[in-house]
Amino acid sequence: MKNYIQAAAWSIIEEGFDPALHQISESIFSLGNGHMGQRANFEETYSGESLSGNYVAGVYYPDKTRVGWWKNGYPEYFAKVLNSCNWMGLQFDFGGTLLDLHTAEVKSFRRELQMQKGYLQRNFVATIPSGSTVEVQSKRFFSMANDEIAALHYQLKATDFTGTLKLKAVVDGDVSNQDSNYDEKFWDEVGKSRTEKGTFLTLRTKKTGFEVITGVKTIVLLNGKPLELKSSEERNKYISEELAVELQAGDVLDIYKIVTNLSSQNYAAAELSARAEEVLHAATAAGFEKLLAEQAEAWALKWAEGDIQIEGDTSAQQAIRFNIFQLNQTYTGKDARLNIGPKGFTGEKYGGSTYWDTEAYCIPFYLSTANQEVAKNLLVYRYKHLEKAIENAQKLGFDKGAALYPMVTMNGEECHNEWEITFEEIHRNGAIAFAIYNYVRYTGDQDYLKQYGLEVLIGIARFWKQRVNWSEDKQQYVMLGVTGPNEYENNINNNWYTNTMAVWCLNYAMEATEIVRAEDPARLAELIEATGLNEAEEFAAWTKISAGMYLPEDKNLGIFLQQDGYLDKEQILVKDLPASQRPINQKWSWDRILRSGFIKQADVLQGMYFLEDQYDLDALRRNFDFYEARTVHESSLSPCVHSILAAKLNDGARAYEFYLRTARLDLDDYNNDTEDGLHITSMAGTWMSIVEGFAGMRVRNGQLLFRPFLPQEWQSFAFKIGFRGTQFSITIRAGEITIFNAGDQISNISIFDEVYQIPTGETVINYQAAAL
Amino acid sequence: MKNYIQAAAWSIIEEGFDPALHQISESIFSLGNGHMGQRANFEETYSGESLSGNYVAGVYYPDKTRVGWWKNGYPEYFAKVLNSCNWMGLQFDFGGTLLDLHTAEVKSFRRELQMQKGYLQRNFVATIPSGSTVEVQSKRFFSMANDEIAALHYQLKATDFTGTLKLKAVVDGDVSNQDSNYDEKFWDEVGKSRTEKGTFLTLRTKKTGFEVITGVKTIVLLNGKPLELKSSEERNKYISEELAVELQAGDVLDIYKIVTNLSSQNYAAAELSARAEEVLHAATAAGFEKLLAEQAEAWALKWAEGDIQIEGDTSAQQAIRFNIFQLNQTYTGKDARLNIGPKGFTGEKYGGSTYWDTEAYCIPFYLSTANQEVAKNLLVYRYKHLEKAIENAQKLGFDKGAALYPMVTMNGEECHNEWEITFEEIHRNGAIAFAIYNYVRYTGDQDYLKQYGLEVLIGIARFWKQRVNWSEDKQQYVMLGVTGPNEYENNINNNWYTNTMAVWCLNYAMEATEIVRAEDPARLAELIEATGLNEAEEFAAWTKISAGMYLPEDKNLGIFLQQDGYLDKEQILVKDLPASQRPINQKWSWDRILRSGFIKQADVLQGMYFLEDQYDLDALRRNFDFYEARTVHESSLSPCVHSILAAKLNDGARAYEFYLRTARLDLDDYNNDTEDGLHITSMAGTWMSIVEGFAGMRVRNGQLLFRPFLPQEWQSFAFKIGFRGTQFSITIRAGEITIFNAGDQISNISIFDEVYQIPTGETVINYQAAAL
Q1: Closest Cβ opposite residue B469 in set A69, A570, A586
Q2: What residues form the catalytic site here (chains A, B) (predicted)?
Q3: How far is CA B669 from CA A559, A630, B664, in A?
């Protein structure tokens, strides 16, 4: 755990330069715009430890799988997030001495991620080894207004240097992935050029053949007067420009890089070059300041929809904004081929970009804070992968249209290879089905089922049907050999969560069929034709399984059992686990973890969260008390669910405690791994803790419901919710909730158990919240 | 499955050259003498596909572990069997054209492994691309009389070639392992020299620093007259000699290589060179033919102890001799630092050399067919690794002297890294304890317990004590998260075999303590001091666990349950599994295998075999019928146990059927993997099928017992058994068993339930066998 980030309501601030923290900061101060992004590497030479990272969404490389021991069913190749061309590099050579903060004496240093306006700014004063001092101010951003554009303004003042400065501006595509399985480089050069519009470098990925062109227009001014750059070094996958200038002490250089990155995903390869010139030319014509102003406007729109304001706790305010900021940088929902990588554009760790995190944790955030299309595109993403999910299931021996979505994916193919996860952590299928339900429940967009959803649900139901088997011994259906959300148990039998979600999926698939039948029988006929669904036979089987599924429970304790045999374990509680033994995933051997009863993340409770209407508060309390006492929350995805359930159980203090565990996970480098990149998907869980936990928001019968409470550490919190074409502003203060209907239609909202009709532009206040 | 090996009672014969079978033959025709060995690579150049392999026992390299996903507890390095210096190479250059069977037209080709005398012979006639024809006969062996020596005689007749032949004799240490994790080479050169005694190349392993010197004296005769070799190419880790000779058609070249391989395990590194010269000089002085005669004598002694004769089935005769031959080539028992690698000297697959195979399958073979010291050395091997086994347990979180022997090892450290095997297949500890019991039962050498055995038993008992936990739910001790012998189930709870063996170990450790106390209380006091054994406390705990262990069973079916939940699986039988689906380990995904009820190898039945006195025939029959119907025998170690138990259940036909599955496993390349090397340890299982199965041999109360039957396909079978200083020859014919006491003392033997006193040199015949 670190504590070096300064609190500020709208900014992430680092004062002073500590090389030991640099890679953490490179992650934290990352920038992106959904289409591309970048770690907060320095523009100028840095010879110290750094993880260089530039990423273009959706561009991947199928790296050949490397495992210790092969298991049948493993994918032969993994789609890997690619490190791509670095357009940022600047080299400053002051009469033979490079500007390099690793060798310079850093007099002052400040980094600020300005989240309201969406830029990264850095100021420093440094004395290089030859004794000269420079003052630098750099500002850069990835445009949310035009996601093909990024821009940099780097201002350098040579305080006391007189002599020749050689400046080199680099576009470097000769990059590699740290996590390459066979130490290969993944890019080939297609071509490069330098015209008056800029320097252009086109690279092609090996095997996949994605082409990406990076165009950079570099402009240099000396004391406001333009200087001319000339061609410099060219080598494979590398192009640069340079100039030499005689500086006087006090001279100021302004360097602008206006950048575009276009990929063959969006343009024909043959057009990339012309299109890049065009885009770059237009952006250059607009100029840095205008682009920056557009950026601020674009972010203002995002914040208008998605901000959460917290009064009375700057650290909490900063943290939630950071999480919202990063979620928006990672995924904008414009492109249904993209998804929310667990590290976004902040690192390369974990091949692939899509986990069940998207469906289980991120969908609610995007549903409430963005256009409906954004969440829809996340669902369509899985729809487009349905065929590959069916192939994936076939590899494991399933047939007849059964679909198993991959644990981790980029293009629909599996990107992970631990048998106990890849083959067994199949509950992901349940989350993908539940997200369809969640989306329809929230938006009322039944049409989605017809166009896309039902086909996915049928594939998933067919998988569950084949994945269970009849136990002669139990005279019930069982599901053997699975790994539940709690990955501290592997290859277990009858995981309550997985079995419960499977039953739910079977029922929902049949329910959805009836919805489509009622709305559009012709479309249903089409779907039946396309999927070969034999309703009579398959539904009978699904119904039988749904009715006859074994769901382990302990009647004495009145709890559901996480899996068969869970009560055979030593029932040690987390409170009795010495601090010296935690986190157990670092302190204990894997087999000790597996044998223990400790739970990595919400499992039974995850199910009771998803399907909350099926369980009463007493059952929830018994299970919560039992499992919370055994849960170590060593997944960043865990505390938010416990927070929401604690709130539901009227335990505000614990709800707040669980919230704190996720809110500043990366800002405080809680798990000592922020240097690899940020935990993007768990950031959505933090948002959920506030909105579903503290504010108690739910959707019931097509309308919003709130059961709010105010954490006692705060004076108030407020957020906006987009719901079915209306936007509500919700403010919770001690003893009151204020809801402003910013939409153009009267809306009903429930607060606790009372229904309020809220006209547009009006508010309602309910004092019941004080009861908490 | 292949069928190209010709049947012969004493030989393995391949007629004709098929490059597609070459790598299989390289395995099958391998040679070794316990100290070193070699795949049957060609001496002359071969540019086709080949797996070159030369091995020196006990010389290993700790290769850095490479896994897909790291789990705490994995070893950081694996000891790997090393491919070492190739001393054999010969190059024949006939006026610019190399002799190379990959490019030549092979007119005739014959390979023969002469097992009675212990040599490999090859004859071929080939026409090289330039049109000349050569006749070659080569013979080589690794001396069992002096395990530091190997020798080759290569005779070449240039039928129709007239011109200059350039001959090069190579010693090549620039070799690598195919299974190197990071494509590194593992040897450095220490030095090389050429004297009149031979050429010498000394190599040192990286990291471990083993030094091995290879000395080769090459002698060349033209039509019986010596030629002189001169120095040739030298490069790093490579030395060669050459000569050029004018050949006339019909000339005959005889090339001898006399070879020594010495390692710093047996000599001070500084002495290696002098010692190698000495050994090589003596061997050269003796000459090839004398060495070959000594080899035949040494093998005659081995066969006198260990042969099995089968009348009426040449194929079976060949197979059992092949198995016995390879077992003797792999392990001679002279060196307690060595063990029985699963591939012996026939391949490099599987890092490490020691598995539970040694204790579970190989000990009985060596107990009966070799000096008592041989089996004892296998046990002492584990004694010497006790400290490392304690460290290994510590890595997994155990303490207080608990010992977990590694799954695979070379030097006592773990060499495997699948968590479900490495951490969980802990039943190996049981087999290691059982081997001590088995050895003492067979030899009567109680002294072993005192010197070595008890200390190992205490460490193992302590492990089991910590590995179980009390289940409040069951009110019994349970053992969670294990993998049993049946590796088609992973991370299961309460594997009956493991739990049963754990109980047995706890009891035997206490029993052994009493034996040592009775025999030598002072030694016991020493051991208590050394191990810190708190008898009162620890024995109380062990007794409690032994009495309170949960052993899953199904009372209705009257069977033990392989593990918790086994009956939840679909109970499909092997007979209903289509041939197209087998072997399931090639046809099915790993998760399908895990979920199925199919059993890879004997598990419950393995336990009923080891501890047979605890179970009556009815219980055995019920379990046998239940589990055999579900066992696919996809481990080479499985059928022998089923064979022995079928024989015990008076089902001779099935006993024979199971025997057939192992007997020719490698000769017929049953599993399509013989090219990687032979399945050495399962060869001992074949021996067990005959001796413990068909002959029904057991040790009871210090004497041998037989319950024989004759497979109806055979006319007779006969074998010798060394037992407590006596040797018995046993011959089983239809309706009769003949036992000849070749020892010098009267001995009691049971046949069925009758005890016979057999004077030395006399025989007894019992007709009861006819009843079968």
Answers
A1: A570
A2: 487 (proton donor)
A3: 54, 52, 8
* pLDDT at B352 (0 to 100): 66
Which amino acid would we find at residue B707? R
DSSP H or E segment with residue B739: strand B736-741
Task: Give every CB contact of residue A384 below 8 A, 6+ residues apart in sequence.
Answer: A336, A337, A412
Q: Give strand ranges (E) for B409-464.
A: none
For A740-768, what is the mean pLDDT? 86
Query: Chain A closest CA to B764's CA: distance in Å?
Result: 53
Integer Cα distance of B756 and B36 in angstroms: 43
B487 catalytically annotated:
yes
Cross-chain CB nearest to B472 (options A471, A571, A592): A571
| pLDDT recorded at residue B66 | 80
Q: Beta strands A77-81 and A60-64: pairing type?
A: antiparallel
Whole-angstrom distance, CA of residue A651 vs CA of residue A665: 22
What does the alpha-carbon distance between residue B599 and residue B619 come to, in Å, rounded to a whole number? Answer: 19
CATH ID of A41-304, from 3.40.50.920, 2.70.98.40, 3.40.50.720, 2.60.40.10: 2.70.98.40
- Give the pLDDT of residue B771: 45
A-chain residues within 8 Å CB-CB of B586? 72
H or E element, residue B559: strand B559-560
| Of residues B424, B567, B589, nearest to A72 (C-beta) | B589
Cβ pair A590:B67 closer than 8 A: no
Q: Where are the alpha helices (DSSP H) in A520-570?
A: 521-531, 535-548
Q: Is B601 annotated as a binding residue?
A: yes
User: Quick check: B142 pLDDT over 70?
Assistant: yes
**Is A189's pLDDT higher than 80?**
yes
pLDDT, residue B767, reads: 65
Probe site for chain A from B569, B590, B593, B600 (most A CB atoms < 10 A): B590
Under 8 Å between Cβ of A249 and A159:
yes
Class of domain B695-772: mainly beta
Return the closest-CA partner of residue A508 out of A436, A423, A580. Answer: A436
Give B9→chain A minimum CA distance, Å. Answer: 39
Q: CA-CA distance, B168 to A461, in Å (whole number)?
A: 70
Assign domain B33-304 to its CATH architecture: Distorted Sandwich (2.70)
| Residues present in chain B in total | 772
**Residue positions forming the annotated binding site of A:** 356-357, 600-601
Residue A563 pLDDT: 98
ipTM: 0.91
Q: Which amino acid is at B126?
A: A
Q: What is the pLDDT of residues A518-535, one digit of tens each?
A: 999 999 999 999 999 999
Is the distance from CB of B91 to CB of B255 less than 8 angstroms? no
Instruction: Please state the residue numbers annotated as binding site of A for substrate.
Output: 356-357, 600-601
Per-domain boundaries in chain B: 33-304, 695-772
Inter-chain residue contact A396 with B473, CB threshold 8 Å: no
